[in-house]
Amino acid sequence: MVIKIAAMFRHVLKKVKVYPLAPQWNRKVYMPISMNNRLIRTPETLEEILAWVFERTDSIQFIIGDYLHRYNILLSGTSEMDAICIAEKIGNELQEIIQKGLQKFPDKDISFRSVQEFYQRDDFRVRLAYFEELYKRNTVFKKGIDRMIENFLNRQGHIEATEIQIKHCLAYLLEELVIFEFLAEEDYLINIYPGKQLDTFKDIVLGKLKGISPILEKVSLVEMKFKFSATNKT
Questions:
Q1: Distance between CA 103 and CA 99 in Å, rounded?
Q2: What is this structure's pTM?
Q3: What is the DSSP string of 38-83?
């Protein structure tokens, strides 16, 4: 009898980097969930992510980036109303996927929040205006944001990097920083992300952008890096 072995490929955890120092795991922990993060959609990879987290803490809050994701959908020319509806639908799907993965980790303190909640706060616009002004006046901050936008758009083969598309990307990043500030003020000082953390956020916690956001300087960033690996399946 001949046994056929098929090669199956998936992302496996390669290493974890922490900025600036190893966190104190008795602090509140959150994980931003990007709607474009494919790692979350693979059950085996999601299980590996959750297992790593729950070896260190029994509590985590998942921040679903649905409303923020509207900007990514707007890049393709979709209307804002449709973009919001699509983003909300994707957010619900991802929450269901994570909840299914959590079934293997009972008795953990789990919660979910949509980023839309933060937009409803009275001072959201004030904080956003601060980062918008900072982008205009702080050359180092602006260069870092522009570099992230350029790198993102270069990875998108179908996007031409028009002025409006660059504007959407800028709004996404600045609004995300506002959301991270709100979380830090709630003592969520450990940010775990399956993938690459924002370069500007890393510069803030590493002290390269001092005075930008004193509350964000207190955050520990955990960056989970993965590699594409083959697993054999008979």
A1: 7
A2: 0.91
A3: GGGGSHHHHHHHHHHHHTT-SEEEEEE-TTTTHHHHHTTT--HHHH
User: Which tokens in the block code for residue 98?
Assistant: 């994570």
Instruction: Please choose, from the candidates 152, 59, 40, the residue with its C-alpha nearest in 3D space to the C-alpha of residue 98.
Output: 40
By the 8 A CB rule, do 184 and 219 touch? yes
Query: How far is 180 from 176, CA to CA, in rounded Å?
Result: 6
- The pLDDT tens digits for 93-128 are 999 999 999 999 999 999 999 999 999 999 999 999
Show the DSSP H helices in the chain as ranges: 43-54, 70-74, 80-101, 116-119, 124-137, 139-155, 163-185, 199-205
Give the CATH number of domain 6-233: 3.40.50.11710
**For the chain, how long is the longest CA-to-CA vector?**
72
pLDDT tens profile 131-155: 999 999 999 999 999 999 999 888 8
d(Cα 50, Cα 205) in Å, to the nearest integer? 24
DSSP single-letter state for residue 20:
S
